[in-house]
Amino acid sequence: MSHDFSALLRTPLTERLGCRFPIVQTAMGWVADADLVIATTRAGGFGFLAGATIEAGKLEGEIRKVIEATGGSNFGLNFHMFQENAAQCVDLAIQYRLRAVSYGRGPDKKTIARFKEAGVLCIPTVGALKHALKAVELGADMITIQGGEGGGHTGGVPTTILLPQVLAAVKVPVIAAGGYSTGRGLASALAAGAAGIAMGTRFLMTTDSPTPPATLARYVKVDDPQKVRVTLAVDGMRHRMIENPFIDRLEAASPVGRLLIALKSAWAWKQQTGMSLGHMLGVFRQALKEDPGAVSQTVMSANQPVLLQRSMVEGFPDEGILPSGQVAAAIGELESCADVIHGIAAEAEDCLAALYARLGDETAAGRRADTEAAA
Q: What CATH code is carried by the domain that includes residue 152?
């Protein structure tokens, strides 16, 4: 029996998001701009704009740019309710009837109801089973689960454990993220029951990414997953990133030393962080009286946007931070979004077709054995 291979990749994700392949490009800060979403959309995937890091005055322009280039609003917007222009993000997603929104710390039921009334799908990202259950309770239409292999702020549960847990507990479609970059990975996620996969690092490491060449070269250079590890040194939360001199120095320092690094960093970019000499001295005195480690984390957390921009926008990978999934170590070259998506889809189709063929052969063999036994 022959199979329509394209049918193997039709899932609730492709049906509800209106994309050709069950492959989602996540909203990486300072990476997922209009151009990356356009490249993803044209290639048949589904892309999210990083509304959390696009300047408020430029956000509507980025949305319009994608619509004009792709001929529709078949893409998504990511935002956080704690960002200053969260209300703007909500309003724009509804105004332009975007296909979906994604978020971490999600909006309340009232805001979710506004999205639903406008036909905008709500797709939160979670890293734990309890958060998935809460998201569904609040009205999530689909859920993206990110295992601990994923980049940036990530949980501690591997995708292979988290995905089956969530699939067994919720009735909405589930998208798997954390550790995916190949067609084999997509095939395994679909076979497990997921509606598709979401990838960040794989899309960051493309020729369509706005990430500076020096920083991209640093990502490509990584060939050991152990070098893409979790640190608590930046803001006290689990943060997976590529090792670099800045992180090594921060982790090796004493609490007071870490405070000095944090203050020096804030002072170096005082125009962006608002750090004055008086403020710096006041923070230092406060830390000596209280807890230098805790205060340094507060300062570093405030520095985080600048540290990200230093590497992801300005192109100085050793002077900022490099959020990354472990999968970066398995990616040895940059390809276009189209080549990545089509390559993954083709490999997944081959894997799933082989699985169906094997199951068909086993079924036929079983029937022959039953017939012979009956005779």
A: 3.20.20.70
Cβ–Cβ under 8 Å, residues 136 and 143: yes
Say if residue 231 is in the same domain as residue 192: no
Residues found in the chain: 375
Mean pLDDT of the chain, nearest integer: 89
Which tokens is 197 given? 């996969």
Identify the three-state secondary structure at position 121: strand
DSSP-assigned letter for residue 248: H
Is 3 a residue whose pLDDT tops 50?
A: no
Residue 141's nearest CA partner among 178, 159, 163, 115 is 115
Q: 112 vs 372, which has greater pLDDT? A: 112
- Check whether residue 198 and residue 239 sit in a common domain: no
Residue 27 has which token pair?
A: 């909203």
pLDDT digits (tens, 9 = 90+) for 209-249: 999 999 999 999 999 999 999 999 888 889 999 999 999 98
> CA-CA distance, 71 to 169, in Å (whole number)?
37
Q: H-type helices in the chain, by residue range?
A: 5-8, 12-17, 34-42, 56-70, 86-95, 109-118, 129-138, 159-169, 183-192, 201-204, 213-221, 245-252, 255-268, 270-273, 277-289, 292-312, 337-374
Regarding beta strands 239-242 and 121-126, do their DSSP bridges make them parallel or antiparallel, or are they unpaired?
unpaired
Q: Are residues 306 and 346 in the same domain?
A: no
Q: Which domain holds residue 272?
A: 220-327
Measure the CA–CA gap between 286 and 211, rounded to whole angstroms: 37
Residues 6+ apart with CB under 8 A from 26: 32, 48, 78, 102, 125, 144, 177, 198, 199, 200, 203
Cα-to-chain-centroid distance, residue 90:
20
pLDDT band at residue 369 using 50, 70 and 90 as cut-offs: low
Q: At what angle do helices 86-95 and 109-118 cross, to 10 degrees?
A: 20
Claim to verify: residue 33 and residue 92 sit in the same structural domain: yes
- In this prediction the pTM is 0.90
Domain for residue 372, yes or no? no
